# Entry
Amino acid sequence: MTATHSHNRTLLFALGVHCLLWFLLPSLLQPNANLDVVEGLTWGQEWQLGYDKHPLLAPWLTYAITLLSPASNWPIFLLSQIAVITAFWAQYAVGRTFLGKQPALVAVLLLTLVPYYNYLTPEFNPNILQLAIWALTVLFGFRAINHNRLWDWALLGVCSGLAMLTKYYSIVLLLSIACYFLTPAGRIFWRQKGIYIALIAAVLVWLPNLIWLIDHDFSTIRYGAARGSGNEKTLADHLINPLRFGLSQLAALIILLPTFFLLIRTGSKQSPPAETHLAANRTFLTLITFGPLIITLLISLATGMRLRSMWGTPLFTFLPLWLMIFSGTLLTEVRMKKLIRVWVVTSLFFASVFITEMLISPQFGKLKKRAHFPGEAIATQLTAEWQQRYPQPLKYAVASIWLGGNLAYYSEQHPSILYDADVSRSPWIDEDALAREGGLIVWNESMDGEMAQYETLLKRYPNAEVQHPLQYRWHMNNTKEPVQIGWAIIPPARSMITDSE
# Structure
């Protein structure tokens, strides 16, 4: 068997096992979808051009994939792994062209050691989708600057537009790519038409959402800024917040970096490609590897903005490849086997952590409140209660993001959700239609703040009929205090009942 065939088989085996593992584990063990998933479906089923927290691509894909098996969790876990394996493939495609198959394979195996690519993938959201979109953007950018084919430039533009439709944080990647075209190697492309095709394609893809964003007073950007603003900023925040974010990202590399430096100690050096070509590609790769992180830290340093650690999910997609390129190392067969053993042990470790969280910790009262929430039971019973009273489908519900998301996700009728009775956050809701066709008001009486909020909210619906609360036990734990759900019915207009009969 040739070395090439061996590398191909190792790659296919490793990626197949990796993605199958992180598809099957949550599919078999996680009883309830996470917050971002139910929230994404609630948005996606409305097919809006934008939402108050994120652009449209992740919500649309969330809803579309669940059509494979409505009210089931496995399609979401499948979608996450499609995003992950796309990122692996894109990194490998760049590395194979640049360095050859063995260094590209090593880079992919190193990337599987990062928690963003394994343990954290079951919760599909814009961060996970960015793994695929960022990697594809870099791949077609790499091909465009190396081959200068018009279709590569067009695909770079399409992927750049999709990146903005995924999460506006993608601007840090696009700025990093733009910086390449200010370098001596990149400036020559301004005299050619490819780069303009990329710009036009990017704008056209993003344009519908951009128009929506302007029409809605940049609500999504204001949400992101507000989430990072927190309390009034002090001088210390300008230093502490970027430092805290940087350390959190360094922690994500706690397995990757030691593994890499141990492996290259006895590796052999390979001959570099032609120097001019190598220098241009090294510049591009360095910019897209470190540019997004540097820009993020500079924004926080300048504004004092608090950065969420999960914003760093896509930042290190090409770091292993950068390490392989700048080390110029080919691993010996012995070192390759050691890397595969590290991959196996790391996979088993994170799988054990996940299994412990899902099955063992709940027996000791340590629940993951999202994953063990009885969302399906709540949605099924509330839908049945509505159907026992009225023949028409349940079309509307007023609830919090979490509770309403579970109702939309697991109810077979997938009602539209009016978040906390705030139409500005749920512009798809027609309040006249809600009054005419009726719906449910649902709140969690186990949460004092939410209960008080909904006692006030009920005054907005004077015809609402408050029902006896319902109780549900948590998954995997029968000793924890049950979830108590308060609910009320907004009766349909009499004409609606008569017409249906």
